[in-house]
Amino acid sequence: MEKAKITEIFTSIQGEGLYIGQVQTFVRFYGCNIKCGFCDERRKTGFKEYSAQELMSVIIKESNRVISFTGGEPLLYAGFLKEILPELKKKGFIVYLETNGTLKNKLLKIIDFLDIISMDIKLPSSTGCRAYWKAHADFLKEAVKKKAFVKSVITNKTTLSDIRKAVSIIKRIDKAIFFILQPVTINNKIQKITKAQKFLDIANSTLDNVRFIPQAHKILDIR
Ligand code: SF4
């Protein structure tokens, strides 16, 4: 049986996106297929290996209803998740997936067991990485079959054309999908984004549900 590398398991409030403030148990997987410049997770080296059964018993001990699989990139562990998710669903848990939105084929392996999908559209001008436009479009087409929303981190390097591109991907699928612009946090400090209003104007001119939401757990200084 497959084991998964997990960096931490803890219960707190969701600090990002549409479900901000909801109490969730977070299972943070180790490793990612992208290297965003602003990411703290990719610099972490410690993890513990769990079998599906071991993870299940930790989740049950936390006795919380919503389980958030995050990372890193949890879909790197789609095979492992496929072992644990049917049992979680049988026991009545709500399953939340936080993903970078690039691995559609892995999503398809487990989508039937997911309730909520928080997916990123990675803006190359924010991340310093290559673009993943097609991968994001393909991913979102599948993700919307569940409760899904899109989040993009914005920085002072983010370009208007990247915002336009993300907006057009969402619009082509459904302009009612929530699009969350999240100002980057650096060294635990939420950055002031000079062009934030301009980004919001662009997104609002096309999409129905645009929000500007900073990371609440950083404001509250909690985990
Ligand atoms: S996709 Fe997420 S986990 Fe991966 S490097 Fe970027 S911010 Fe970090």
Question: Could you walk me through the main structural features you see in this protein, from its secondary elements to its overall organization?
Answer:
The mean pLDDT is 96. The chain has one domain (3-220): Alpha-Beta Barrel (TIM Barrel). 33% of the residues lie in helices and 26% in strands. It has a 9-stranded mixed sheet. A two-stranded antiparallel ribbon has the order 9-10. Helix 5 (133-143) packs parallel to helix 6 (160-173) and helix 6 runs parallel beside helix 7 (196-204). The chain has 223 residues and is of the alpha/beta class. Iron/sulfur cluster (SF4) binds next to loops.
Write the layout of secondary structure elements.
Elements lengths: L2 E11 L9 E7 L18 E4 H11 L3 E5 L7 H13 L3 E6 L4 H7 L5 E5 L3 H4 L5 H11 L3 E8 L5 H14 L5 E5 L1 E2 L2 E2 L5 H9 L5 E3 L3 H5 L3
Parallel strand pairs: 2-4, 4-5, 5-6, 6-7, 7-8, 8-11
Antiparallel strand pairs: 1-2, 1-3, 9-10
Helix pairs in contact: 1-2, 2-3, 3-5, 5-6, 6-7
The structure holds iron/sulfur cluster.
